[in-house]
Amino acid sequence: MMSIASGREIGFTSRRTQLRLVSQLRAQGISDETVLTTIAQVPRHRFVEEALQSRAYEDTALPIGRQQTISQPYIVALMTQQLVNGRAHMGKVLEIGTGCGYQTAVLATLFSRVYTIERIGSLLETARQTLQNLGVYNVSYRHADGTKGWPGRAPFDSIIITAAPGTVPRGLLDQLGDGGRLIAPEGDRYNQHLTRVVRQGQRFRREISTPVVFVPMLSGTEE
Ligand code: SAH
Asked: Per the residue annotation, which of 6, 31, 71, 112 is the catalytic one?
């Protein structure tokens, strides 16, 4: 588990707007204190380009280039809460869809190790740089199509997918350890819901919740 080095000064205004965001998330029903504390610690403005930094603590998705977005804070908080809530041991987590690395930083604060996969090479390199600048070192990076997971590092205590597959690939479920949890937005471009799968032995219990809008999970890689 990491604590984030504050690094470059965060202005008073952004600190205030960051704390306001945390209060908003609480009011919207995010109740896990470890998640709220983490959102209050991770400087989201460091994950977006300068022109967008003043909007970093609005509860909204923002563009990060290559037609991708940094997820809305409420959704990051909700998915993280669904992964960690009520669990004592937070070991290894696999993240598919690194994007700008914001969700990665949140996970790195809560889990002992994060394995993150991104199919677009330039996004992965920028995320790696941002996280290193913040002093986040418990992350392993991989430029690949995450559809197949990371078999060499399985089993995972948790898996989080931050792009929408039609349905979660079976091969990924097999990389969950016993008692492990997977969370993903499932569905097509116009109809997606957060889905949580909990593994008990060879049984996989599915729970479907909030409607969401994520970019689609694509196959193959790009530079
Ligand atoms: N958690 C990220 C979300 C980024 S958007 C953030 O907050 O910044 C989703 C990301 O998933 C995009 O960067 C996209 O390139 C990536 N992605 C889509 N399909 C993928 C796949 N098969 N394997 C790995 N990454 C994928």
From this structure: 71
CB neighbourhood size of 193 (10 A): 14
pLDDT of residue 130: 98
Is 99 a pocket residue for ligand 1 (Cβ < 6 Å)?
Answer: yes
Least confident of 3-7, 97-101, 175-179, 193-197: 3-7
Alpha helix positions (H), the chain: 12-27, 33-41, 73-84, 102-110, 121-133, 170-173
CA distance 188 to 166: 6
Say yes or no: CB of residue 218 within 6 Å of ligand 1.
yes
Asked whether 80 lines ligand 1 (CB < 6 A), one says no
Of 44, 120, 122, the residue with max ligand 1 atoms within 8 A of its CB, to mutate for a pocket test, comes to: 120
Nearest to 47 by CA among 55, 110, 78: 55
Q: Ligand 1 atom closest to Cα of 146?
A: 23
Confidence tier at 11 by pLDDT (50, 70, 90): low
CB 77 within 8 A of CB 30: yes
Is the per-residue pLDDT at 6 higher than 90?
A: no
96-138, pLDDT tens digit by residue? 999 999 999 999 999 999 999 999 999 999 999 999 999 999 9
Q: Tell me if residue 112 is catalytic.
A: no
Q: Is 3 helix (H, G, I), strand (E, B) or coil?
A: coil
d(CA 178, CA 157): 8
